[in-house]
């Protein structure tokens, strides 16, 4: 079958199109494109069916496992595919590893090394117990994240644009340093022993709950990496769609109750708003996908992310 | 009902733009008059009241963008208005020691000419529905000179204020305190200077692109 590959401006990306055998899959098409244009490896290609002009519908993205025939309606031997270059890509594992590595390394630097002399403070300082526990808590948290990245998470897309590496690392590394500066400061004022224990205790429970949420989410997807969406069930997912974000937010709240810095709370607010945006999108997507029609289950009534508010 | 709201919007924006125009006109007039009669050391004192009023009024423009009264995106009005308010209140008003410097004159002259052209341009469009082509040309060409002079004055004045910021401890919060929080206005000023490095060429390039679009569009009409 003949595939005509056009860019969104109408220009032919590969002159003369591509010839593929009739039972070719989208993955075969991606390989063929890559063979002709070395630059565009498969994860950089976004292939969609052209949308009729004026139509408000979102374009259909070609699924790499399906065969091209499934997308031809009527015209069996001919198909026009819209091509978009997503730019250089990195695997999600690479992205997450580097963004989490920053906080894991930068925070202990503020704890162990005499950095505050460069800010004009004397080298001698008293280290409060809460500062030591905060170090362990923080490092455990990012170590846990890295472990989950490599051994638990199943990603819906294999890759992310390279520009996200710079953006995400800036976010994590800057906030990590900002918080580490204040918690390990020579003039740091600790909270009461009880408040510290409540904070870290609550935070730890939430971190464990968060890991369990991740395991539940992983089991919703098959190991062959085809992604896809299912209705999450069990544990906290029965009451809230994005229980994983909920537990993550509460875990940071625990850290802040124990360490009490404005920097930490600022980070909590920013992280919460980012996750809330994601949660709203995910909740909307699941409700749209599981609309109860044509034999599909209907998505149950649930909180989005933070009962009783949202 | 819709016509009434559109009319109301036009009346409000006409009044807003022409009022602030008068404010900036006063700034320019007083600045030039004082320069001629007394010298650059006295310019700030002469223009302070209309300057503070006119520049602070610009905060309304962020609101206008937020509620959709005007088309300008908040993402471009916020840094623009923010940096102006920072210079006006956070540097000039807060640290009187630098008010006698000649850069204050170049600053208020650059700003006031730009704003006179801008506010009268929008005032014309809202009140009369059009603006003459020379006015459009001025709006999209004066920045070619006034941005470099204005930005240099802004950077220069922030830099000159640094020793006074450090010495006065103004707007700074020190540790230890219950919330383990600190603000160092001096380091924030250094950070502000840092933003000018990528920010200025970006803004200038953006204006060049806007100019190309606006002037070619008017040629087609």
TrEMBL record, chain A:
Topology relative to the membrane: Multi-pass membrane protein
Annotated protein name in UniProt: Very-long-chain enoyl-CoA reductase
Transmembrane portions of the chain: 94-114, 126-143, 164-183, 262-280
Location of the protein in the cell: Membrane
GO molecular function terms listed in the Swiss-Prot or TrEMBL record: oxidoreductase activity, acting on the CH-CH group of donors
Keyword Transferase: no
Pfam families: Steroid_dh (PF02544)
GO cellular component: membrane
Species name: Herrania umbratica
One Gene Ontology term from the biological process aspect of the record: very long-chain fatty acid biosynthetic process
Family label: Belongs to the steroid 5-alpha reductase family.
Keyword annotations from UniProtKB, A to Z: Lipid biosynthesis, Lipid metabolism, Membrane, Oxidoreductase, Transmembrane, Transmembrane helix
Automatic annotation (TrEMBL), chain B:
Topology of the protein relative to the lipid bilayer: Multi-pass membrane protein
Coiled-coil residue spans: none
One of the protein's GO biological processes: very long-chain fatty acid biosynthetic process
Membrane-crossing residue ranges in chain numbering: 12-32, 102-122, 143-165, 185-204
Keyword set includes Membrane: yes
Metabolic or biological pathway, per its Swiss-Prot or TrEMBL entry: Lipid metabolism; fatty acid biosynthesis
Keywords attached to this entry: Endoplasmic reticulum, Fatty acid biosynthesis, Fatty acid metabolism, Lipid biosynthesis, Lipid metabolism, Lyase, Membrane, Transmembrane, Transmembrane helix
Broad class of the protein's primary localization: endoplasmic reticulum
EC number: 4.2.1.134
Annotated GO MF terms: very-long-chain (3R)-3-hydroxyacyl-CoA dehydratase activity
Reaction(s) the record says it catalyses: a very-long-chain (3R)-3-hydroxyacyl-CoA = a very-long-chain (2E)-enoyl-CoA + H2O
Function: Catalyzes the third of the four reactions of the long-chain fatty acids elongation cycle. This endoplasmic reticulum-bound enzymatic process, allows the addition of two carbons to the chain of long- and very long-chain fatty acids/VLCFAs per cycle. This enzyme catalyzes the dehydration of the 3-hydroxyacyl-CoA intermediate into trans-2,3-enoyl-CoA, within each cycle of fatty acid elongation. Thereby, it participates to the production of VLCFAs of different chain lengths that are involved in multiple biological processes as precursors of membrane lipids and lipid mediators.
Family: Belongs to the very long-chain fatty acids dehydratase HACD family.
Designated name of the protein: Very-long-chain (3R)-3-hydroxyacyl-CoA dehydratase
Organism: Herrania umbratica
């Amino acid at each position: 079958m003949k595939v005509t590959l056009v860019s969104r401006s109408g220009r032919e990306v590969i002159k003369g199109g591509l010839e593929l055998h009739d039972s070719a899959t989208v993955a075969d098409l991606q390989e063929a494109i890559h063979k002709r244009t070395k630059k565009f490896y498969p994860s950089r290609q976004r292939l969609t069916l052209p949308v009729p002009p004026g139509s408000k519908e979102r374009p259909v993205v070609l699924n790499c496992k399906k065969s091209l025939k499934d997308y031809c309606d009527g015209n069996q031997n001919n198909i026009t595919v819209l091509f978009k270059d997503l730019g250089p890509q990195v695997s999600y594992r690479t992205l997450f590893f580097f963004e989490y590595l920053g906080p894991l390394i930068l925070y202990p630097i503020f704890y162990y090394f005499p950095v505050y002399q460069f800010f004009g403070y004397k080298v001698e300082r008293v280290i409060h117990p809460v500062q030591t526990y905060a170090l362990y808590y923080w490092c455990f948290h990012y170590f846990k994240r890295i472990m989950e990245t490599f051994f638990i998470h199943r990603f819906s897309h294999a890759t992310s644009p390279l520009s996200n590496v710079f953006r995400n690392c800036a976010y994590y590394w800057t906030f990590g340093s900002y918080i580490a500066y204040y918690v390990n400061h020579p003039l740091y004022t600790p909270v009461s022993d009880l408040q510290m224990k409540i904070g870290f205790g609550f935070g730890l429970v939430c971190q464990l709950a968060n890991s369990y949420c991740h395991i539940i989410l992983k089991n919703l997807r098959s190991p062959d990496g085809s992604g896809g969406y299912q209705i999450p069930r069990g544990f906290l997912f029965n009451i809230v769609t994005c229980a994983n974000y909920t537990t993550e937010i509460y875990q940071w709240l625990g850290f802040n109750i124990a360490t009490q810095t404005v920097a930490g709370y600022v980070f909590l607010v920013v992280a919460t708003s980012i996750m809330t945006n994601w949660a709203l999108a995910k909740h909307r997507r699941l409700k749209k996908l599981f609309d109860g029609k044509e034999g599909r289950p209907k998505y149950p009534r649930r909180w989005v992310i933070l009962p009783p508010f949202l | 009902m819709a016509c009434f709201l559109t009319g109301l919007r036009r009346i409000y924006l006409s009044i807003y733009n022409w009022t602030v125009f008068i404010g900036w006109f006063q700034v320019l007039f007083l600045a030039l008059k004082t320069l001629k009669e007394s010298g650059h050391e006295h310019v700030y004192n002469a223009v302070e009241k209309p300057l503070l009023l006119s520049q602070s009024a610009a905060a309304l423009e962020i609101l206008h963008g937020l509620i959709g009264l005007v088309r300008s995106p908040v993402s471009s009005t916020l840094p623009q208005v923010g940096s102006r308010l920072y210079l006006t209140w956070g540097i000039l008003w807060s640290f009187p020691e630098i008010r006698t410097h000649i850069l204050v004159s170049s600053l208020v002259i650059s700003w006031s000419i730009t704003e006179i052209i801008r506010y009268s341009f929008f005032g014309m469009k809202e009140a009369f529905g059009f603006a003459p082509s020379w006015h459009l040309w001025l709006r999209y060409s004066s920045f070619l000179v006034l941005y470099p002079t204005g930005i240099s004055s802004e950077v220069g004045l922030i830099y000159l204020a640094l020793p006074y910021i450090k010495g006065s401890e103004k707007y700074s919060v020190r540790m230890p305190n219950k919330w383990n929080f600190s603000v160092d206005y001096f380091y924030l000023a250094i950070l502000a200077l840092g933003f000018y490095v990528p920010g200025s060429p970006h803004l200038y390039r953006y204006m060049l692109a806007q100019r190309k679009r606006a002037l070619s569009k008017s040629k087609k009409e």
